[in-house]
């Protein structure tokens, strides 16, 4: 196969003198906040990990987070953009806290975190135009993909996960009939490959999310936040059961819960701030995942299931945001000029 030939365009527009666009600011800001949080979490994980392969994986992930933070900060400084406060080892993590998770959980967590990072980077790449920013996000994407390969190798080699279900290769090309959309009544067809894929992915994400929020609910200091975490744990469990039921009905395997990978510790390694931000961020990612799932779904029953999940998660994220605002924890992303305010000032 011939390689794609480069296109030479006589333009000097993409240079470092260009101002950052809203898209570039937004994705750089989100990258900084996410990796600022990840750096604290992974540093704690490294205090207790015993498996040498998993330790090397965590070290690679920490190295990437540190690199991404450094580069983002350098771009911000060029533009006199205020460096976000984010999260710090001094305020948001206690590296001396007892073990809260078993080694196996760290691999599942890193897979979830890598997915979250890639969702930022792959959306950013088509939207950014300044050369240094574009090259940075391409590097972020490539590096995270390399990390994902290592994560999957460890998951499979150590028997920590099952692959997505196997289904038969089609005998021929066919076109759907009118009952294709049925889900509650009439002739309900089997799940198609895209529906199976997203059910599997949502189960994988949610079992990781449930274990994390369960651990956080054990150690969080605020009673208000604990109650929110327990609420999130309960509906996450129900969501997983619903998704599993769809696959089990077709005699297809599913990933398992990871609750047993959380220890009995009630001593918090993290600040309430970072834990609440982390769970709000994870649930926000689920909103995007469910939207992607609904977009390729064809059955009414599955579409309704995702709609109900979206509503529940959106409510959680709103409640979490209110608590963060009350405590002065929510940093404001870059925003547009309020022209009405300027007019009133005159």
From TrEMBL:
* One Pfam family hit: DUF3231
* Gene3D superfamilies, alphabetized: 1.20.1260.10
Q: Which domain of life is it from?
A: Bacteria
- Mind telling me what this protein is named? Uncharacterized protein DUF3231
Q: What organism, scientifically named, is this protein from? A: Neobacillus bataviensis
